[in-house]
Amino acid sequence: MHSEQNTARQQALLGLGQALERQGYRFITATPLTHERVNARAENQQARDLAGVFGWSRPFAAPVVGDELLELMRAGGVLVQQGQQLASAVRWSSLGGKLFVHSGYPTVQTDAVFFGPDTYRFVRAIDAFLGTPATSRVSRAVDICCGAGPGALCIAQARPAAQVLAVDINPRALEFTRINAALAGLDNVEAHYSDLLKNLDGEFDLIVANPPYMLDADSRAYRDGGGELGAGLSEAIVEAAIGRLAPGGSLLLYTGVAMTAAGDPFLAYVKRTLSDASLAWRYEEMDPDVFGEELLKPGYEQVERIAAVVLTVTRTAAGV
Question: Domains, the chain, ranges and CATH?
C-alpha cells in the first residue's frame, strides 16, 4: 500500500509539471539571498500568479492556481496550509527548456533538494564538455549527488543511446529526479540510491558531480560538504571516481572552494592527488565569487571568497 501511495503521489506531481508546461509556466531560480530580499518587499507578501506560487514560494489563495492545479497539489502531497492561506512545498524551475521540481523555499529541511545558480553553471559546464570530440562515445554515465537530476538529464538528452545513472543518498532527490526525467520524456535515466559509487558496478565513460561544498551548522545534506572548509565531499568524489573511469573516460566535477590568503586549497589537493601519468586534468574558476553572504558565518573567518570551479579529469586510452 505504501508503494502504491508513493506511485500515486509521484504521478500527481508529474501531472502538476505537465499542467504547468501547458500553461506556459517558466521560472529562473536565484540565490537564497536574492529570494529572501525579493520576497521581503511589501508587494510580494502574497502570490498573485503561478511564478509567485511555484517559483517564489509565496502563500496564495486557491483561485490563483485554479481547481486543476490545486487538486494535483493535494494528490501530490505538496499543498501546505499556512493560516488562512495555502503554499506549495515544492518549486518548479526552468532549465534548458525543461521544468524541474525541487524543494520549496526556504530549504531548511535536512532532506531538502536544492536548485539554484550553481545548477545552471553545472549544466552549462556539462553542455560545453559534451560539445568536445572526446565525449562523442559516452555509453555509460553517472551523476553523483544528483539532487533534482539536472546533470543526469542533460547527459541523457545529449546522448540518448547512453545509460545514465543518477545517484544520491537522499530518497527525496531520487523521487524528484524520476519525476523530472519522466516530465522531460527521457527513458535512459535510472535513479539509484548510492553513497558515491558504492552501490554501482563497472566503469563509466563520464562521471559528473555537483556536490555540497559549504560549512553548515545544521549538517543539512544538500549544503554540508564536510571536511576542511566544506571540501570533504568533493575530495571523496575525486578519489572514488578516478578508479572507476573507463579508458578515455572523464570526471567533470563542479564545486565551490573557500579561498584563503594562502591560495586555493582544493587545487593544492588536486595536484597532490592526480599525479598518475594516465590522468590528464584541467582546472578552472568558472566564477570567482559566489555566496559571499556565507563569509559572515562561523568557520569562514579566514576565507576571502568562495569560488565556483570546474575540475575535469580524463583517463588516457592507454591508462589502466
Answer: 2-103 (no CATH), 117-315 (3.40.50.150)
